[in-house]
Amino acid sequence: MKPIAPQEVRVWDPAVRLFHWSLVGAFAAAYLSGDDWMSLHVNAGYLIGGLLVFRILWGFIGPRHARFRDFVRSPSAVFAYLRQAMRLSAPRHLGHNPAGGAMILALLVSLTLTVASGILLYGATDFAGPLAGLFRGEAAADVLEDIHELAANLTVVLVVLHLAGVLFASFEHRENLAIAMVTGRKREETPA
After folding, report:
1. Which of 4, 138, 140, 149 has the smallest C-beta neighbourhood within 10 Å, fewest atoms?
2. What is the pLDDT of residues 69-113, one digit of tens each?
3. With b meaning 16 or more CB within 10 Å and e meaning fewer, what string describes 61-89?
4. DSSP letters along 165-180, please?
5. Which of 55, 49, 46 lies closest to 13 in space, CA to CA?
6. Strands, DSSP E only, in 27-157?
7. Tens digits of per-residue pLDDT, 131-175?
């Protein structure tokens, strides 16, 4: 393992990084497979569900920067941060900034809705999965399919916004946040 330079500190633990990149791969596989490769789609969806359960638990018991209390802020704090960012005067955060924290919550909600509606849809249309037969009929399947597609597409929109935010914050604070999610390290905070 490469030693950490004195100007860098560990921020993202291996579990958060593995979760993040596993989620990227699983969501891409699920989204791109759609109805064409149902087995891949379903298994990727189950993987996403398991990853979500892990991340929610890790948000309470994980290390400092993985915990929700480290990055979940009030809506007013998020909007204040966004106003500062638009003026290129937002403060740098070692962990997630308030907008990044809000994005994590939004992605967790949209992915949970996608997985839940997918499991219900799978049970209603293929009579398979843990909720097989809970909902029956074409009308129920149509509603579930609409919810599932809407949630998946909302997730794509959130991912694009997330990537834009990462690029913007990387530019504003002159650090590569994507690399930080690979290495787990960020530049040490400078005293004010």
Report:
1. 138
2. 999 999 999 999 999 999 999 999 999 999 999 999 999 999 999
3. ebeebbebebbbbeeeebeebeebbeeee
4. HHHHHHHHHTS-HHHH
5. 55
6. none
7. 777 777 788 889 999 999 999 999 999 999 999 999 999 999 999
